[in-house]
Design a protein that fits this description.
homodimer; 344 residues; alpha/beta; 434 Repressor (Amino-terminal Domain); Rossmann fold; 3 domains; 4-stranded parallel β-sheet; 14 helices; 12 strands; DNA-binding; transcription regulation (chains A, B); transcription (chains A, B)
Chain lengths: 344, 344
DNA sequence: CTGTTAGCGCGTTCAA
DNA sequence: TTGAACGCGCTAACAG
């Protein structure tokens, strides 16, 4: 029995990460004091704080996350949950703006913001598991389809904020007034003299898709115009190309087209131009989002500023409130506006 | 002393997550047995295993990650570390391919793969802290500039695999033969009859940038051609635009241009065409990467297939080996090939 | 202001 | 094949 309990009263083992205990020993104080210094330093005399900090530096001490998490029951991590595959997320600038918006609303705060997407074959439910696994303290959910995910998330104890009305009462969300945006876009087409109008919709299992379509039909109705066609899309560039081909083959004789996202509009334009259709001379096009795609394509896209960054920032702010104990914040709806460029 | 220790012998508290203890109680076994069942189930009789699994299901038990991590000292998470800001990461398809490649090499394995980027103002060192914080078990590092980061990472106990030669001995990496790729690109320009050649380089503090430039100069030398210009770029689209403007204003009279990445090439082409230069008639262009940009631009870009996905996959595979205890695996260098399209 | 103490939930010896 | 006991590193009462 010459061996005491492991590391009991010993110097820090070389190679092993130093612990609070090691720091305490070096500084000649108790673990609790070191803990106080490490977590803010209040309630500790300046001198001891300095002694402790010196020991921390000397040892290169880093708090053990697991141990801290075990007792505080918080991970210091929040997630942006996107029920789409990485392929889609990385190819649509909308998600970059959204992620960046949430990040910016947490800048200067301790929390780390991670991006979690669905794996190709997986059900969106895995994101719920991730949220309840204890690895994250809360989440912002973007691009949810249908209301299964919101319903599943409604029963979870971690705070969640949606981007776009989740359609389930009692949940926090930030959104853009998508209907209004589509009205603006459609009115622009009408103002520029177009009468044979059509729209390429976004995913119709998403509120954003529904509202943008609704805005289009409403603006048409208000102007006494009957839409020539309503072509289903899914917010991807490929679906835009497909929509354009269907427009061409149906020989719709359209002269104005509202496309529910810039990415789709890029696909539409590429395909139309490939077929010899001139934009805007033959068909005027208005997009939606004002993403970088709008500036990249020729002609530059007239579009609706979707404030993706700001909406996400609002969502992040609401999540912060929820995390700090606030009750359900009221939804925040931002107003879109029109960006005039060359395509309409 | 009527109160026993908290929750001792009690039913699981409503609202609190069920613990191993709760499951053990419900199944009528000890915690250790439940633990065995949850982690593989060997060394447990089939009947008790079934009883335990039933209890797990009934309670909806999820293992507490923090507690498990505290004792196993592993997090089950690996990271793709990118010392670039999210703006850059999300705007270059190269990173999507890289991330996806690493993910795919871990598919079917327990590990979760996360993407970690630098925040705008932060030094790349923060990524080292992240790696040593215990939150991840290992990492693949992509797009490192210079050798400060590799050197810092060399002293870390967690396994790390680089994409691109880190320039520090003793580190694992996967790479593309960038020099060879640049040679192929340049030879293509020469074969198509171009003699007044120039290159827009990538970041010259990255080995990929250096090697691509070296391949260009080598191919020129071998053909007895003196390069007209070597224009510095940084792999971004904006730097491509800038390079194009400098080409135009210097009136270099170039007829063949090797641009060290597709994204830059897109910027170069947009700017040249804007100035009335025809591609490939006036200036032939070869890009590098074969990213989706190469197919999106007009004319479609002749480029070098950089196999970003496969290189990343190799790096992921090497990381898996390292994590399972293997010694330093030999570097893997993939061979590029040329993709002929319309720009050269 | 500081130290002592008691767990957080789990994996893992060591005995039985 | 199973159970009892220990400790991973840390925070949060509670005493002093």
């Amino acid at each position: 029995m010459t061996e005491p309990s492991p590391r009991g009263g010993q110097a820090p083992t070389a190679g092993a990460a130093p612990t609070l205990q090691d720091v305490a020993r070096l500084a000649g104080v108790s673990r609790a004091t070191v803990s106080r210094v490490v977590n803010g330093g209040s309630l500790v005399s300046p001198e001891t704080a300095e002694t402790v900090n010196a020991a921390v530096r000397e040892l290169g001490y880093q708090p053990n996350h697991a141990a801290r998490m075990l007792v505080t029951r918080r991970s210091g991590v929040v997630a942006v949950l996107v029920p789409e595959t990485d392929l889609r997320v990385f190819s649509d600038p909308y998600f970059a703006a959204t992620y960046h918006g949430v990040i910016s609303s947490f800048s200067g705060h301790e929390a780390q913001v991670v991006l979690a997407m669905s794996k190709p074959g997986e059900p969106a439910e895995r994101l719920v598991e991730y949220l309840t696994s204890g690895r994250i303290d809360g989440a912002v959910v973007a691009s949810h389809h249908g209301s299964d995910l919101p319903r599943a998330l409604a029963g979870v104890s971690q705070p969640v904020v949606f981007i776009g009305d989740p359609g389930v009462p009692g949940l926090a969300y930030a959104d853009l007034d998508n209907t209004r945006g589509a009205v603006l876009a459609t009115q622009r087409l009408i103002q520029s003299g177009r009468r044979r109008l059509a729209t390429v919709t976004g995913s119709l299992d998403m509120v954003a898709g529904q509202h943008r379509r609704a805005g289009f039909t409403r603006a048409c109705a208000e102007a006494g115009i009957t839409p020539v066609a309503i072509i289903p899309g899914s917010f991807t560039e490929a679906s835009g190309r497909e929509a354009a081909r269907s427009v061409l083959s149906a020989r719709h004789d359209i002269d104005g087209l509202f496309v529910a996202s810039d990415l789709m509009a890029a696909g539409v334009m590429a395909e139309l131009q490939h077929a010899g259709v001139r934009v805007p001379e033959d068909i005027a096009i208005v997009g939606f989002d004002d993403s970088e795609m709008a500036r990249r394509v020729r002609p530059a896209l007239t579009t609706v500023r979707g404030h993706a960054h700001e909406v996400a920032q609002e969502a992040g702010r609401m999540l912060r409130e929820l995390l700090s104990g606030s009750t359900l914040p009221a939804p925040v709806i931002l107003a879109p506006d029109l960006v005039l460029r060359d395509s309409a």
